[in-house]
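Let us work through a complete example step by step.
Step 1: write down the sequence.
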Amino acid sequence: MTTLVYDGDCGFCTTSVRFLHRHIPTSATVVAWQDCDLAALGLTVAQAQDKVQWVAADGTISAGHAAVGRLLLDAGGWWRVPGWIALTPPFSWLARGIYRLIADNRHRLPGGTPACALPPEQRPGASGSSGVAGSSGVAGSSGGTTG
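Step 2: predict the structure and record it as tokens.
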């Protein structure tokens, strides 16, 4: 099973996942890292806190811009074009920088909250560092929506 793992304590990330469910069809299960068994996915809390993670059915892990690229490839149709661009040098180098710029400033973006600027353990409603339990409002959703 392919899984996209995001930060459920981040308002911008949660807003992005809502957009995903409405507009980007995917076969992946989409889940907040706070609500899944990271070890079973081959991930650490540090990896999940740092970047969005794409865990392919074969266990291959892609992070950050590469995870977004893999998601877009999985969506098919015209979504494959930006997915391919995000994964292909020299465009991938630019995509990596853009991802980091967005991640570092997510608290300033639509859907973001001042809590997004805090370290994960200091956010309101922080679930600790177990990577298994917590609340995200969208977690546990699976893809496949075409909406």
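Step 3: interpret the result. Residues 128-147 have pLDDT under 50 and may be disordered.
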